[in-house]
């Protein structure tokens, strides 16, 4: 890896770091209902929405009501989107001539669950399956609602640490509205305009038919005898791409307007647009660490979490970048000896290895499947990095809200283990981790391996699961299946595209993983917050591990790697590690 690439990665992380404090402080003011610059515009709209819906903004909820409302919104959004997808041929903007992928009941169910859980796993090509109405009204609306509801759960989780002797965690509908009006909507407007300035399209034109320039059509100078065959027409999809593109990144959703997602020049035309889209993915989850520090009245706690996330992020960049700069032996054996730019298989020339790796690491860490290169074509070690990022459980920045409570729940595991080793009751921010809280932590920790490993095992021993391996088998095929369920469980949505996932088996099984990843993690986190809010915050004792120290950072990173390794190292050995040892064969 050259110094230019390292400098590019460092500059990206430096810019994110500079923006963490102002944006994090702004979000804290929004959720604590303090005055902000957008209040004159948004407050009247907020009051109108409460009047229309009958929401009492002063009626706070305990964790059970909060979790119920969160689940209710997810269920309602799923049903509404499913209905839109099933009848899209009767709705405006449906182009039957170009919609070649049928929207079957199982695919519609999978897609509806995918977008209502921020997973945006796509077993279809957007431009050949979705009408403009479905993309704009169905998918884009769900991107806003699902992203805002995740951020709301994160805020409620933080209140569990900030409050004392309390039974309430806030009002879900108020947090949802404020997430939409004060954060996601204004950032989306600005971001969409910036993307349009870079060439991201935003129109409702019909698909364009064009005759491509082909080598067989080009005459050699002076050759009058050659004849040109009739050109094969190419269909160029159009559509309101910019509206979907910005919120899929800001909301850590990732569903692309086109089949190739961020590799399509209409979604991501320039290196600058790629940089802006990656920044949109990182900003809110990164800044939320500072929001946490502000709300618990100890910003050092937030900065400690951010530093741990950043160290893991940079490690992933360096490992993946170094792997993708290596020569691919499979390509060399095919007779292509020169790979001076590294492993460019499956990567866009306009991005190269460096920005492709940056995007792979940002999106796999940020619970956003907005890839700009084909991860299925990465080297085994390079492809292991986004897979491990997801198996870690969204702890490196992660999704809106989910990233913060994921890393804190993991930190609590480390504190519990540390406490057992020294014979002390573990505590965090002056509150004890008692048996009731420990149960929620345990449920949270076990949910990911319990979901991913059995589903992967069923897939590799069943005809329906193996039928998806139409391109690869062996170790790489196993990795494709493991990656699919890891991505679904992490509510990420990326895939190894060699797996043909549009089947009843994968549409149903990945839907199950998505729902577990969304609700079997959020609800225990809310329950933990409700239990923690009831305690009185005590001064940190001398024997307790300081949670704003280097020691705590080491404990947190070690816990993350140990928990992930104990759960998934055997599976990784059967997949990418074995493939690497076999020389990519």
State the helix count: 18
The value of Rg in angstroms is 24 Å
Percent of residues in helices comes to: 55-70%
Number of E-state strands: 4
> How would you sum up the global shape?
globular
Q: Report the average pLDDT across residues.
A: 90
Query: Ends: how far apart?
Result: 24 Å
Strand content: under 5%
**Biggest beta sheet summary:** 2 strands, antiparallel
Main features:
mainly alpha, 585 residues, two-stranded antiparallel ribbon, two-stranded antiparallel sheet, 61% helix, 18 helices
Description:
- The protein has one domain.
- It is built from 18 helices and four strands.
- The chain has helices at 3-31, 39-53, 63-86, 105-116, 132-162, 172-197, 241-250, 271-295, 299-324, 329-333, 352-365, 380-391, 402-422, 435-461, 463-466, 474-489, 504-533, 550-581; strands at 208-210, 234-236, 427-428, 431-432.
- Strands 1-2 form a two-stranded antiparallel ribbon. The protein has a two-stranded antiparallel sheet with strand order 3-4.
- The chain starts with a helix and ends with a helix.
In short:
This protein has 18 helices and 4 strands. The chain has helices at residues 3-31, 39-53, 63-86, 105-116, 132-162, 172-197, 241-250, 271-295, 299-324, 329-333, 352-365, 380-391, 402-422, 435-461, 463-466, 474-489, 504-533, 550-581; strands spanning 208-210, 234-236, 427-428, 431-432. The strands form 2 sheets. The protein has a two-stranded antiparallel ribbon with strand order 1-2.
């Amino acid at each position: 890896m050259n110094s230019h690439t390292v400098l590019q990665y460092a500059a990206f992380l430096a810019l994110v770091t500079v923006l963490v404090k102002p944006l994090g402080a702004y979000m804290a003011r929004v959720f604590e209902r303090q005055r902000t610059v957008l209040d004159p515009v948004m407050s009247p709209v907020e009051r109108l929405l409460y009047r229309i819906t009958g929401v009492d903004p002063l009626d706070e909820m305990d964790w059970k009501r909060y979790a119920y409302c969160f689940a209710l919104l997810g269920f309602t959004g799923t049903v509404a989107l499913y209905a839109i997808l099933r009848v899209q041929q009767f709705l405006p903007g449906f182009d039957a001539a170009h919609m070649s992928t049928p929207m079957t009941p199982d695919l519609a169910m999978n897609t509806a669950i995918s977008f209502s859980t921020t997973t945006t796993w796509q077993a279809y090509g957007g431009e050949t399956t979705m009408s403009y109405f479905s993309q704009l009204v169905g998918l884009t609306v769900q991107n806003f609602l699902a992203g805002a509801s995740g951020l709301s759960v994160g805020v409620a989780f933080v209140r569990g640490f900030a409050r004392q002797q309390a039974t309430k965690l806030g009002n879900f509908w108020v947090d949802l509205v404020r997430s939409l009006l004060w954060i996601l909507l204004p950032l989306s407007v600005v971001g969409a305009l910036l993307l349009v300035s870079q060439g991201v399209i935003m129109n409702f034109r019909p698909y364009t038919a064009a005759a491509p320039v082909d080598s067989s059509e080009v005459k050699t100078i002076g050759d009058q005898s050659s004849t040109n065959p009739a050109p094969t027409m190419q269909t160029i999809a159009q559509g309101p791409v910019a509206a979907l593109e910005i919120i899929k990144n800001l909301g850590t959703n990732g569903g692309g307007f086109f089949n190739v997602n961020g590799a399509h020049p209409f979604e991501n035309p320039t290196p600058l647009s790629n940089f802006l889209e990656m920044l949109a993915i990182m900003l809110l989850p990164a800044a939320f660490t500072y929001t946490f520090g502000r709300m618990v009245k100890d910003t050092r706690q937030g900065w400690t979490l951010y530093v741990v996330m950043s160290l893991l992020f940079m490690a992933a960049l360096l490992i993946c970048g170094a792997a993708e700069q290596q020569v691919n032996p499979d390509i060399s054996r095919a007779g292509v000896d020169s790979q001076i730019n590294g492993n460019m298989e499956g990567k866009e020339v306009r991005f190269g290895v460096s920005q492709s790796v940056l995007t792979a690491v940002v999106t796999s860490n940020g619970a956003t499947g907005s890839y700009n290169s084909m991860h299925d074509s990465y080297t085994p070690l390079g492809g292991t990095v986004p897979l491990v990022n997801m198996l870690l459980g969204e702890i490196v920045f992660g999704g809106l809200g989910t990233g913060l409570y994921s890393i804190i729940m993991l930190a609590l595991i480390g504190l519990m283990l540390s406490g057992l080793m020294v014979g002390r009751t573990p505590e965090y921010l002056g509150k004890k981790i008692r048996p009731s809280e420990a149960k929620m932590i345990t449920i949270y920790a076990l949910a990911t391996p319990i979901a991913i490993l059995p589903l992967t095992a069923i897939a590799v021993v069943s005809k329906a699961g193996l039928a998806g391996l139409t391109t690869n088998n062996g170790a790489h095929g196993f990795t494709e299946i493991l990656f699919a369920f890891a991505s679904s469980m992490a509510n990420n949505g990326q895939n190894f595209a060699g797996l043909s996932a549009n089947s009843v088996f994968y549409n149903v099984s990945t839907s199950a993983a998505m729902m577990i990843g969304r609700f079997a993690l959020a609800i225990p986190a809310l329950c933990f917050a409700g239990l923690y809010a009831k305690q009185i915050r005590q001064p940190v004792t001398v024997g307790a591990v300081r949670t704003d120290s280097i020691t705590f950072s080491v404990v947190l990173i070690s816990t993350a790697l140990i928990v992930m390794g104990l759960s998934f190292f055997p599976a990784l050995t059967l997949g990418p590690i074995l493939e690497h040892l076999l020389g990519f064969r």
